[in-house]
Design brief:
Blueprint: E1 5-10, H1 13-24, E2 32-37, E3 43-48, H2 58-80, H3 89-94, E4 98-101, E5 107-111, H4 113-119, H5 126-144, H6 146-160, H7 170-185, H8 188-207, E6 212-215, E7 218-221, H9 222-228, E8 237-240, E9 243-251, E10 257-264, E11 267-275, H10 276-279, H11 282-293, E12 298-307, E13 310-318
Parallel strand pairs: 1-2
Antiparallel strand pairs: 3-5, 3-6, 4-5, 6-7, 8-12, 9-10, 9-12, 10-11, 12-13
Amino acid sequence: MANAVTKIPVLSEEEAWSLLEKAVSNGLPKGTIQLNIGDWYNRHIKFEGERYNSTITPDLMQVFIDLQKTIYRTYSKLTYNETNHRLSDDEKKSLEIFVKVEPGSSDFTAMLNKAVETLTKGAVNEMQAHHYVIIIVASILCLTGTVMWRAFLKHRSEIKQADLDLALSQEESHRLEILGNAIKREPYVGIVQKDSEEFHNAVIKCGKTTDRFIVADQYVNGEQAGIMARNSRSQSEEVTLNGEYRITKVDSKDPDVFKVYLVGNGLKEFSATLDRQTIISGKNLAIIQAAEWGQKPIRLMIDGKTVRGEVTSARIVDVPDRFASGT
């Protein structure tokens, strides 16, 4: 007989924070669970000013495009355990967000219903439950939650002395502590938090050209927004990732590119590619295959790029003719 599924309703932001707190303290129900998330996460933003009259400007459009990319990365992390996995067109379609513009105004609502439904689809067993709940719920709260919006506005106002009348309640401060604990349990949540801050900052930058804008029940005028907005998002950094790795998986489906999944060198698992010129030598291919089959560490010469400490792309440029030390 199949195990019963415990359905957990998450019908408000308050319930989401409560569930996240249970997840980080191992307080979830035993057995298989399934989340039933309402639509409280759809984020409403209103801009007031001459440029914003039933229109969406190019810079604001880019804000929502970047939000969409963050959702793609979260789905990729949950489904493939890597943030830069190439999603199919069908997967992207199932994760689409929609931006609703109210008639006669510049009231925007980011509609995430379809994306959240895809992210929470299906049930997960007890072994996966805490990982699943922490990443899903924390990601939604980071990107759209009122607490995270207010915390970001308060932080930017304080460090830039923008004179924004905003104070966090004791409960809101406690929820930030819950998020900190979630990041300790699932470091990927910290990456989503950084992405959410870039999203929030991009909205503030758009607000510089308004008379004022309203988000999370907080009014910010154009002058304050100009003071609070920071420079553009973190750029990728070119790095050398030479070191000892273990190969966890090999993907040779693409006739032009050979992909391996690596762990080691103090990094989380990431994928690296080899072009056919690199592996044309049977010797190189034999070394890689022997390392995978024998679960032996291998020394690799890798060029890559990182963003906020996470490897976003990597290319193996050489495979030395030996296994790593300590085999």
